[in-house]
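STRUCTURE:
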């Protein structure tokens, strides 16, 4: 029978030393007073001292007082709980640069099972944290640009609507008036009279279309009265023009600010256009619910639904729906779409701004 090798403990210790000193993580152990009992090569290099000089020291010999306080609080929390824990720790390296470590800390136990110290395995995640902070800053900058773009877009809509009304609308009305004067002031044959009359009717329909388009692009009601009045008018327009039964109900508690009101108005308009183009629906229901902190807008139809069912927050195809999602997201909201053979329901949820941040008590 073979005898166990007497050098097995030495090989095990060699393997442990190789693992502890070969890892890029900082590994150390401390006693109850915070004195270092063990430290690996990587940690000693980071501290800028030989390992044998660090053993027996505590954190007050290595870090500024404010860092020492945080480290000791974390150590005491782990020892008191007698359980391992993951945490982020901020320290300063020997060049004075702030660093962030993701540390796994756990208690050490003596032979009787009592906590005798603490161990830590720490990984430097400074670059990852800085990259995340930069990403968040870029996202905030993009959100600000999106808001500016949305406001500029709304101003351009109002400008276009004003030009449609003041230039094209007035020119069409003048042309219709001149045709009417020609028909009344000149002796025209019956055929020419009929043609002039047909042109007058055509111009009248065009004037109505321009007026309707002007109101849909930038309805005065939205800015003079509010979102509810504008959506009520929009529902009537789609009912009259597209033979849809459009219902609208709202429990909105306050006046929305211009950006939020305009965004939601154009979201509803875009959704109604999609219903007319694709849904083959007979009924559409628009509903707004306001719980004081969050506004929820729903647009539901009884049409044929999408070719493939789309649920929850999955990506949506089509530029129109993509544009709607972008509008909602830059307000900090979410969009959900559920579709099936019985119809499609789009839900938009957006946080309501603090009323104190807006003028005249508006949201």
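SEQUENCE:
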């Amino acid at each position: 029978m073979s005898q166990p090798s007497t050098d097995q403990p030495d090989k095990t210790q060699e393997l442990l030393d190789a693992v502890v000193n070969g890892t890029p993580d900082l590994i150390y152990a401390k006693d109850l007073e915070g004195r270092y009992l063990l430290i690996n090569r990587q940690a000693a290099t980071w501290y800028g001292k030989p390992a044998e000089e660090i053993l027996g020291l505590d954190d007050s010999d290595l870090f500024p007082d404010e860092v020492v306080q945080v480290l000791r609080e974390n150590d005491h929390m782990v020892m008191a709980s007698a359980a391992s824990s993951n945490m982020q720790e901020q320290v300063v390296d020997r060049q004075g640069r702030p660093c962030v470590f993701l540390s796994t800390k756990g208690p050490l136990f003596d032979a009787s099972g009592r906590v005798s110290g603490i161990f830590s395995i720490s990984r430097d995640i400074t670059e990852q944290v800085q990259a995340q902070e930069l990403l968040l800053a870029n996202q905030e900058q993009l959100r600000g640009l999106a808001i500016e773009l949305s406001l500029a877009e709304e101003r351009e809509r109002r400008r276009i609507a004003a030009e449609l009304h003041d230039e094209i609308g007035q020119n069409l009305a003048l042309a219709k008036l001149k045709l009417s004067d020609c028909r009344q002031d000149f002796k025209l044959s019956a055929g020419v009279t009929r043609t002039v009359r047909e042109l007058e009717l055509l111009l009248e329909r065009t004037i109505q279309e321009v007026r309707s388009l002007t109101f849909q692009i930038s309805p005065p009601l939205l800015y003079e009265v509010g979102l509810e009045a504008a959506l009520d008018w929009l529902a009537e327009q789609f009912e009259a023009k597209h033979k849809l039964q459009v219902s609208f109900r709202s429990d909105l508690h306050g006046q929305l600010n211009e950006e939020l009101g305009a965004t939601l108005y154009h979201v509803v308009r875009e959704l109604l256009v999609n219903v007319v183009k694709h849904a083959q629906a007979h009924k559409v229901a628009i509903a707004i619910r306001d719980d004081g902190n969050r506004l929820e807008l729903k647009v539901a139809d009884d049409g044929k639904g999408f070719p493939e069912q789309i649920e929850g927050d999955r990506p949506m195809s089509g530029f129109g729906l993509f544009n709607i999602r972008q509008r909602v997201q830059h307000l900090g909201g979410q969009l959900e779409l559920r579709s099936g053979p019985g119809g499609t329901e789009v839900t938009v949820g957006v946080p309501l701004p603090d009323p104190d941040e807006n003028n005249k008590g508006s949201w």
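REMARK: Strands lie at 26-31, 36-39, 85-92, 98-109, 115-124, 245-250, 283-290, 294-301, 334-340, 343-351.
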